[in-house]
Every structure is written in C-alpha cells, then in structure tokens.
Amino acid sequence: MSTPTGIVEAPTAQSELQIGVETFGDITAAPGGGVTSHAQVIRDVVAEGVAAEAAGLDFFGVGEHHRPDYSVTSPEVVLAAVAQATERIRLGSAVTVLSSDDPVRVMERFATVDALSNRRAEIIAGRGSFIESFPLFGLDLRNYEELFEEKLDLLAQLLKNEPVTWEGKLRPSLTNAKAYPEIEDDGRLFTWVGVGGSPQSVIRAARHNLPLFLAIIGGDPLSFKPLANLYRRALGELDGTEQPIGAHVHGFVAETDQEALTTLWPHYQASMDRIGADRGWPPYTKGQFMAAAEEDGNLAVGSPETVAAKLTRIAGGLGLNRLDVKYSHGSLPHADNLRSIELLGTEVKPRVLELLKNEA
C-alpha cells in the first residue's frame, strides 16, 4: 500500500482497504464560548490533517462549500498547507464542485498540490450537495446536469497529460491546450468521480474509466451494493480497466459508545436542522439519530470497537478499496475532532484491517 519512501500509494482495485478522514471545515464551538472564526477553523483543519497522518490514516480530504457554516472555499489552498506539514498521507478534495468550476483550473491547482506533496494529491470530482456556488459564480441551475457532464468530459481528457482539442456547449472550446504544471514522471493525477446514488452517475464514472466514490449519507450503507456492482459491470461492458471503489460515511469515535453518542448528538442535531431548514425537512429527532447509529445505519459513531465493526461491514459488503469518515459535524469542537481522528487511526483502522483479514 505504501512506496519504499513511506508515501501512501493511490488505491487500485486490488489494494487492501485504505481508511481516511474528511472535513468540510465546519464552524466549531470555541473553547471559551461562542463560535470559532473562519480563519481559526482553517488553521485547525491544517492541524487535523497533520493529526491524521500522525495517527496512521491513509487519506485526508477537505470539502468545498460557499456558505457561512463552513470555512473552506478553496480546498487546494488548505491542502497545500497540509502538504508542507506532512510526508506520507494522501490529500484530496471531498468534493471539488466541478459543475461550478473550470476543469483546466481544477487540473492546474491540483497539479500544484501534487508537486508540493510529492505526488500525494487526489481529486474527488462531484456536483456537491449544495447549490450556492452556482449563483455565486454566475451559472444557471437549469444547466445543472449538462454542466457536470461537459466539465467531467473535459477533465477526463486533461488527465491524460496530452494536448487537448475539445468542444463544448457551455464552456469555450479548446484547441491543442494543456494544463500546467506537468505531473512528475509522466504521471496521472488520481481522480475519483463522486456520486450520490444514481445509476446514471455510476455509469458516467464507468464511461470515463475513472474510480467511483460513493457518498453514503443515509439509510443502510449496504443498499449501495447494487450501484457498486453496476459500476463493475459497466466497466467490463465499456471495456474499461478495473478501478477502485471508495465511499464516505459520517462518523465520530470516543472512548465509549455512550460518550460518543452524548458528545455528538447536540452538534449533529443542530447541523441537520440547519440544513433541513433550507431543504424543507422536519426537525431531526433523537430517534433518527439513534437509528442511524445502529449496526445497519449510516452513522459510524461509538467506541473504537463499535465503529470498527460498522466500517468492516461497509467495506466488506461493498468491496471497497477506500473508506473515509467525515469526522467534523457542525459545532463539534476541534479537540473532539482531534481525539476522534486519533482513535480512528490508532485503534479503529488496525481493527478493521484485522477483521477484514479474518473474513477473507
């Protein structure tokens, strides 16, 4: 899984499971009361990336949002800072909202992170779960589907590290164009397609022969198994090469199940209610939270033993090569995030790998 220098390699379809963590740079509760500033949260995110490497985790991902409850609008800048403070952990977006960005600039920014990190950069290209970036950047939401389709097609061409001649409808065409800086050693920038659960999105990833990343944010995670199987089947039918599959879940680890549930609940509830108010959802209940924390729920919260069992079920059931835990949840304090990262790396990850080995 790692090169002789200790750098974690990009996963393949044959790799043993990698375990990573992700954050959106959620605005946290400040130690003395009130909320932490956006600037301090960004500095805390860098510290959390360093902590993820120290804990032995394989990947650190940073999301992109353009709203007041999250601090990170430019994941690549934050990842560049983490790159300079780490040596082995892989670094990427979670996700890059490709629909409202420009594929050439995305390629160039991540190629820069790749250089700074000695080939550790990744892109997870998706449409995101919020739409605020579309009006912010002057894009028409009526083109939501077509924007992503067109821009993913261009990004896939740019990833080949060859001059690109490309024609689109919503983005100006290119003639013999190439993104810079070049990737070292004639390499390729490792790029996933992030999907939320539609078969069309899964087939799109297979059509471009790019790795698939599943966003599991509700229900039984094993309900995504038909999509994973569809992806593998589509790759074969489209003459693609075998590709890894990754997924992310929400989670939080503490010393005991009760401590984890008690600590997380008020922050998770407030976050879900804030998002729900924008989307017309009813208030989030304690019953929903506890159901999500059950064995077949989507929330990996509890002691290291409990979380390891849940991650093993998900990774084994879906045949994953990468499984990330989004550890930050609304105002959950930075100190709790750091402890959760430490437990995920030092206690959960070894248990998961051992459990998967015993099941093989």
SSE pattern, N- to C-terminal: EHEHEEHEHHEEEHEHEHHEHEH
The radius of gyration is 19 Å
Please, what is the CATH homologous superfamily?
Luciferase-like domain
Oligomeric state of the chains in view:
single chain
Helix content: 40-55%
Pfam families: Bac_luciferase
Keywords: Monooxygenase, Oxidoreductase
Organism: Galactobacter valiniphilus
Protein name: LLM class flavin-dependent oxidoreductase
Describe the structure.
This protein has 360 residues and is α/β, with parallel strands linked by helices. It has one domain: Luciferase-like domain (TIM Barrel). Helix content is 43%, strand content 16%. It contains eleven helices and twelve strands. It has helices at residues 38-54, 75-85, 103-116, 133-136, 144-158, 199-207, 225-237, 257-279, 286-292, 304-318, 334-359; strands at 18-23, 59-62, 90-93, 96-97, 121-126, 164-166, 174-177, 190-195, 212-215, 245-253, 299-302, 322-326. Strands 1-2-3-5-8-9-10-12 form an eight-stranded parallel barrel, surrounded by seven helices. Strands 6-7 form a two-stranded antiparallel sheet. Strand 4 (96-97), helix 3 (103-116) and strand 5 (121-126) form a beta-alpha-beta unit. Helix 3 packs across helix 5 (144-158) and helix 6 (199-207) packs parallel to helix 7 (225-237). The longest helix has 26 residues, at 334-359. The mean pLDDT is 96.
Could you outline the blueprint of secondary structure elements for this entry?
Elements: E1 18-23, H1 38-54, E2 59-62, H2 75-85, E3 90-93, E4 96-97, H3 103-116, E5 121-126, H4 133-136, H5 144-158, E6 164-166, E7 174-177, E8 190-195, H6 199-207, E9 212-215, H7 225-237, E10 245-253, H8 257-279, H9 286-292, E11 299-302, H10 304-318, E12 322-326, H11 334-359
Parallel strand pairs: 1-2, 1-12, 2-3, 3-5, 4-5, 5-8, 8-9, 9-10, 10-11, 10-12
Antiparallel strand pairs: 6-7
Helix pairs in contact: 1-2, 1-11, 2-3, 3-5, 6-7, 10-11
